[in-house]
Amino acid sequence: MRLSKLRGWPLTFLLAAVTGLSIAPFYWMLISTTRKDTEIFDWPPSLSPGDSLGDNLHRLDRRIGLLRVLGNSLLVAGVQTVGALVVALLAGYAFAKFRFRGRTLLFGVLLSTLVVPEQVMLVPLFKMMMNFGLLDTYQALILPGLCVPFAIFLMRQSLSGLPDELLDAARVDGAGEFRVLWSVVVPVMRPVLAALAIFLFLGSWNQFVWPLVALRSPEMHTLPVALATLQGNQNTTDYGAILAGTALSTLPMMVLFLVLQRQFISGLLAGATKG
Amino acid sequence: MTALTTPAAPLAEERAPARRGPRWRRTALPYLLLAPALVTFGVFKAYPIVDSLLLSFTTGNGAAGHADGLANYRRLLDDPLFWTALRNTGEMLVVQVPLMLALALLMAVGINSALVRWRAVWRLGIFMPAVTGLVATGVMFSFLLRTEDGAVNRLLEAVGLPAVDWLGQPFWARMAVVLVLSWHYTGYNAVIYLAGLQSIPRELYEAAMVDGAGPVRRFTAITVPALRPLLLFTVVLSTIGTLQLFDEPYVLTGGGPDNATLTVSMYLYQNGFRYFDFGYASAIAYALTLLVSVLGAVQMRLMGERER
């Protein structure tokens, strides 16, 4: 026993090194956020925070309008997550718990679009939003993300496992269908909903191509678009400010991840284990 | 999900008819529940997919295109830049996917080993990059990969290796994209494998050891077959993802140097939204769809067959 414990150390050490490589860039980014532009590329890199955090944030704010951009990102991701969750829950419930004409066909059509790359929709969506005069608006960002076939698929799979007796018991007690959904299905499905919500929020928070296409004015930018624009500006040497931006876009997700590890991992792995 | 749906028992249907409202409401209910999904699906998924196909048969600027048969597809076949984009994407794919998945598998086996301590910590740490957005990752690495003073080169020099002109040399620029993608997704894939490994019964390994199987034999005879469905899933997912690569090269290299990291998706974006050639962009989109479906299907066939 003692011997095998000893044998475990090299492997543990190796894993520590790999883990170190995974999180070192984050650490460097966070430290750099608090340092002056001139110190960011020091070697060896400084391991302790400096005192320029306020200054970097201030410069970032001057360049992109920090609160506005953060607000845009939060609003879009929040509304899209809640919307897509409701759409998926209702549709998943219908597919899992009701027999109706066209059920198999509709589900098949919905699923078949999973293999179509998102890029296919870019041009037509752009045209559509242009015709509706919706380019450069929140609606343009939010609407296309409300129907997530994968989320509907996942909800259907999970709801299929829900015993019908549970629903019937509530119906016998005189509950209407929406009441059954709200006070029986939703509470039971909370873990799945939480995992799915995280999956959707993360995707929406980080989405890039479509906002890049659909947005024009800087005050409508979401965080990834603002960051890419800022970084693409070749004569920018505002390293501290740019890194403060990346920190702001990653930090909320990292904190959420550390708090809700289990839901996060099951949310991101949903496709792998349930597929 | 292991539990399968049992078809709604007819008895249950009849048990509480009185309170369920008129018959038409019961028939309409599933459609009512589906309405939001169907409307959003029709408008923002189905219609664009069809419209894109129709657009790919038109030429002309912006929305003012006119029907022109297969002109866009013919142009595509003769477009050296499209082939460059395809070759770049292919090269990154061929290097990145096997490298990353092999590494992920090693990490998963390592973490799953009975000898290892603080397993939860390693799992947490390696998963973290997957939580970051690709744009933020790209921006961060555009600093870390600077030739003169970037941390990656400094690290290479520290262990006696030459510094690399990551973003300035065509080949290395592609490898830079590979590196960043791998940093982002390796841990994610490792955690998927780990979930699979943990469901393999330990007795299987013990029995194999009794039979005299060494670690390599145990890995190839027990671990790999047990993980096959997950391996298939990750191979297909990574392949599809890399084929659609956009964010990383856009932020990291802008497609350069000299189009060395131009991907199919970036080329589509350029044609659609820089030159507003909607027809041609749509043709590229459908070429990409074809590629994704064919490669996905081939992989499923290949790996699914070996499973039997």
Structure explained in plain terms:
- With 275 residues, chain A is an all-alpha fold.
- Helices cover 75% and strands 0% of the residues of chain A.
- Chain A has helices at 2-33, 53-64, 66-97, 103-112, 119-131, 138-142, 149-160, 164-172, 177-188, 190-206, 209-214, 223-232, 239-259, 261-274.
- Chain A is globular.
- Chain A starts with a helix and ends with a helix.
- The model of chain A has no long low-confidence stretch (mean pLDDT 88).
- Chain B contains 13 helices and 2 strands; from the N terminus they run H-H-E-E-H-H-H-H-H-H-H-H-H-H-H.
- Chain B starts with 9 loop residues before the first helix and ends with a helix.
- Chain B has 308 residues and is mainly alpha-helical.
- Chain B is globular, with a radius of gyration of 25 Å.
- In chain B, strand 1 and strand 2 form a beta hairpin.
- Classes of the chains: A mainly alpha (275), B mainly alpha (308).
- Chains A and B meet through helix 1, helix 3, helix 4, helix 5 and helix 7 of A and helix 2, helix 4, helix 5, helix 6 and helix 8 of B.
Properties at a glance:
heterodimer, A: 275 residues, mainly alpha, 75% helix, globular, B: 308 residues, 13 helices, 71% helix, disordered N terminus
Percent range for helical residues of chain A? over 70%
User: What does the largest sheet of chain B look like?
Assistant: 2 strands, antiparallel
Number of strands of chain B: 2
Percentage of residues in strands of chain B: under 5%
Based on secondary structure, the structural category of chain A is mainly alpha
Helix content of chain B: over 70%
Oligomeric state of this protein: heterodimer
Report the β-strand fraction of chain A as a percent range: under 5%
Name the biggest interface.
A-B, 108 and 106 residues
Helix-strand pattern of chain A: HHHHHHHHHHHHHH
As residue ranges, the low-confidence spans of chain A are: none
Cα-based radius of gyration of chain A, to the nearest Å: 23 Å
- For the biggest β-sheet of chain B, the strand order reads 1-2
Judging from the principal axes of the Cα atoms, what is the shape of chain A? globular
Average pLDDT taken over every residue of chain B: 86
Instruction: Please compute the radius of gyration of chain B using only Cα atoms.
Output: 25 Å
Note the overall shape of chain B.
globular
